[in-house]
Design brief:
The protein is of the alpha/beta class. It folds into 3 domains: about 240 residues, Glutamine Phosphoribosylpyrophosphate, subunit 1, domain 1 (4-Layer Sandwich); about 200 residues, Rossmann fold, CATH 3.40.50; about 150 residues, 3-Layer(aba) Sandwich (Rossmann fold), CATH 3.40.50.10490. The protein is built from 20 helices and 27 strands. The protein has an 8-stranded antiparallel β-sheet, with helices on one face. Strand 5 and strand 6 form a beta hairpin. Helix 15 packs parallel to helix 20. Bound molecules: 5-amino-5-deoxy-1-O-phosphono-D-mannitol.
């Protein structure tokens, strides 16, 4: 949460910073700000989106070749102009941007107030920059050393950059817990929360490690050291990201673009791993842990939100195919409930961003207790992959819409491949079933392509139900997680209350809600528990509920009783979640658009939840 971007070089910083902020707006968008040094320190901050900041700064002095900028998701203090970053030191010489939470800020603030510091905002960040200033003055050290000493007094998480009016040729950055990438170009440095603001200027990057500081000076090499003052050698990496993925490419929203990208993103997830010529699944990233997985007494899937839903599909897949017991855990609960973890457990942490604070904390805890930790993440170089023993990237490409779409189908694709690979190793799958699933998995991108052709039908259905106040989503077996995911998608972007349920559970409570006002989305493909779902649909209809059914192409039974049907191709029961989720994503999208909601940046949400 919160996006930071900084620039030092020969170019004008302001346009680079604003463009960078727009790329990072998915991380938070309740206020934003920029600070530039050009003789003076010019600071502009505004409540609202980056566009508000741009309007505010128009016509003002935005000159300067060094600057920092921030887009905020409020933690300490309401979103307003004063609490927006950057924050400054008391003497207005230093400015800081920060992503993370300084947990002991209250204690530090009190001490600083006692020493005469006066604070303008309610933020923990302002405390940090005052602390740096205080250390510099009292210890009589240079700014870099003052930052280092101050960081040793801080408890919490940070990715922060500091600039100084007295020294406009320098950026000082540090990180712990929150992500930070440094781009090194020709006579220029860029810093950002992820690589998207950097990639068009340079592909040479360094991912800062926890408790590491970086000093960037004009005409000098990048200098790294730990906050305990040990010099580090930078490990440079090459960005492979394609710039197109950062633009809407003709779509009205990133979410719609990402829904339509799924045939390609799923293909990318399978590339080089599903070797169709020899009919083999091979995930190189977990190769060395195959034996560990094969012999695991238990697998724990740990995740949050949509990624947790992917984990639930994973539970069905793994138990079905590998016969290893699986538990799926909300990371936020798991980390605080003293769970039993043994060295024979394998934890699979699932996360699009790779930065989710609860997931990260849960895997650190499981690691301490001796479990093997594998990761399934989308963002390369993010924190979670760096804390796992091994893992597989989903390679779905940057997901910018806050509502997760293509990341989910890619996570399920990896889980399917992993389950097949381990089932084969364990001998819990027959040769013919293994080959049938491998070959069918390979056809999923074209099946998704076919599902996307339901776009217009889904749009029409959306228009009929856009004003509904509640929605129910029902599914059984593999499609129970799909129902949960459909409901989450709808509520997060359209603000309509929606619940997902296992269809058979309906009669244990939710059936009381059903009347002519209640749309019920039922995932009812031919495979699985079709007859039972037909009965559930009858039960809804008997109470005058409106049924929107996702059915297998050519279905007649459900079509006779449902109010609307959305047809999907026939695929194996295990693979249905990969295609049945897609029309539900479209349904949420169109309903949200028709209700005038900001689908890419829904209220109160952020793409990357780096606070608990
Ligand atoms: O980046 P992660 O996959 O770890 O994020 C987990 C959740 O915050 C995320 O899936 C969230 O639920 C999305 N907004 C869902 O669309």
């Amino acid at each position: 949460m919160c996006g930071i971007v900084a620039y030092l070089g020969d170019k004008q910083a302001y346009p680079i910073l604003i463009k960078g902020l727009k790329r990072l707006e998915y991380r938070g968008y309740d206020s934003s700000g920029v600070a530039l040094i050009n003789g003076d320190l010019n600071l502009y901050k505004r409540k609202g989106k980056v566009a508000e900041l741009e309007k505010f700064a128009k016509g003002k002095n935005v000159e300067g070749t060094v600057g920092i900028a921030h887009t905020r998701w409020a933690t300490h203090g309401e979103p307003n102009d004063v609490n927006a970053h950057p924050h400054t030191s008391q003497d207005k010489n230093l400015a800081i941007i920060h992503n993370g939470i300084i947990e002991n800020y209250n204690v530090l603030k009190e001490e600083l107030i006692n020493r005469g510091h006066v604070f303008e905002s309610e933020t923990d960040t302002e405390v940090l920059i005052h602390l740096v200033e205080d250390v510099q003055q009292n210890e009589n050290v240079d700014l870099v050393e003052a930052v280092r000493i101050a960081l040793n007094q801080v408890v919490g998480a940070y990715a922060m950059v500091i600039i100084s009016k007295k020294d406009d040729g320098k950026l000082i950055a540090a990180k712990k817990g929150s992500p930070m990438v440094i781009g090194v170009g020709d006579n220029e440095f860029l810093i950002a929360s992820d690589a998207t603001p950097i990639v068009e200027y340079t592909r040479k990057v360094v991912y800062l490690e926890d408790e590491e500081m970086a000093v960037m000076e004009r005409g000098k090499e990048l200098q790294l050291k730990s906050i305990s003052n040990i010099k580090h050698t930078p490990y440079f990496q090459e960005l492979t990201m394609n710039l197109d993925v950062l633009e809407k490419g003709g779509y009205d929203h990133f979410m719609l673009k990402e829904i339509f990208e799924q045939p390609t993103s799923i293909k990318e997830t399978m590339r080089g791993r599903l070797r169709i010529d020899d009919g083999v699944v091979w995930l190189g990233g977990i190769r060395e842990y195959t034996a560990k997985l094969k012999n695991a007494k238990r697998i724990l899937m740990i995740a949050c939100g949509t990624s947790w839903h992917a984990g639930l599909v994973g539970e069905y897949l793994f138990e079905d195919l590998t016969r290893i017991p699986v538990e799926v855990e909300y990371a936020s609960e798991f980390r605080y409930r003293n769970p039993i973890i043994t060295e024979d457990d394998v934890v699979i942490a699932i996360s699009q961003s790779g930065e989710t604070a609860d997931t990260l904390a849960a895997i650190k805890m499981a690691k301490e207790k001796g479990a093997t930790i594998l990761g399934i993440c989308n963002v390369v170089g993010s924190s979670i992959p760096r804390h796992t023993d091994a893992g597989s990237y989903t390679h779905a490409g940057p997901e910018i819409g806050v509502a997760s779409t293509k990341a989910f189908t890619s996570q399920v694709t990896i889980l399917t491949m992993m389950a097949l690979m381990i089932a084969k190793e364990r001998g819990t799958i027959s040769r013919s079933r293994y080959h049938q699933l491998v070959y069918e998995l390979e056809t999923i991108p074209e099946k998704v392509e076919e599902v996307l052709k339901t776009n217009d039908i889904v749009k029409k259905i959306s228009a009929l139900y856009k004003d509904s106040r509640n929605f129910l989503y029902l599914g059984r077996g593999y499609n129970f997680p799909v129902a949960l995911e459909g409901a989450l998608k709808l509520k997060e972007i359209s603000y309509i209350h929606a619940e997902g349920y296992p269809a058979a559970e309906m009669k244990h409570g939710p059936i009381a809600l059903i009347d002519e006002e209640m749309p019920v989305v039922v995932i009812a493909p031919k495979r699985g528990h079709y007859d039972k779902l037909v009965s559930n649909i009858q039960e809804v209809k008997a109470r005058k509920g409106k049924v929107i059914a996702v059915v297998t192409k050519g279905d007649v039974d459900v079509a006779k009783i449902a109010d609307h049907v959305i047809e999907i191709p026939d695929v194996d029961e295990l693979l249905v979640p990969l295609i049945a989720t897609v029309p539900l994503q479209l349904l949420s999208y169109y309903i949200a658009v028709m209700r005038g909601c900001n689908v890419d940046q829904p209220r109160n949400l952020a793409k990357s939840v780096t606070v608990e």
